[in-house]
């Protein structure tokens, strides 16, 4: 099951939990349920479900002298093909200002048009 499909089946609390983990880049489970203002039992169940779906990684650790888990977002598969036109990378990558009249941009657009 893809990450997008797995996320579509999550409850509101589970989506909020996943967003918290992604925003923080990682959080200890003992802080996780407190941030969400839910019981530790419910927090554990949510974390287990997210880990089982492959949306987060859950690793045992010791934090403030207590056994807990560290929850981190799972790496996502990114689709870089959206940035490509044939074998040309988008001229927008790495540029602060894009010149829409540039030859590189025009050629990239033409490659997009000819792909379809």
From TrEMBL:
Q: Which residues form the HTH marR-type domain?
A: 14-61
Q: Name one Pfam family in it.
A: MarR
SUPFAM superfamilies tied to this protein = Winged helix' DNA-binding domain (SSF46785)
Query: Which GO biological process annotations does it have?
Result: regulation of DNA-templated transcription
Domain of life per record: Archaea
| Protein name stated in the entry | Helix-turn-helix transcriptional regulator
Q: Which organism is it from?
A: Halobellus rarus
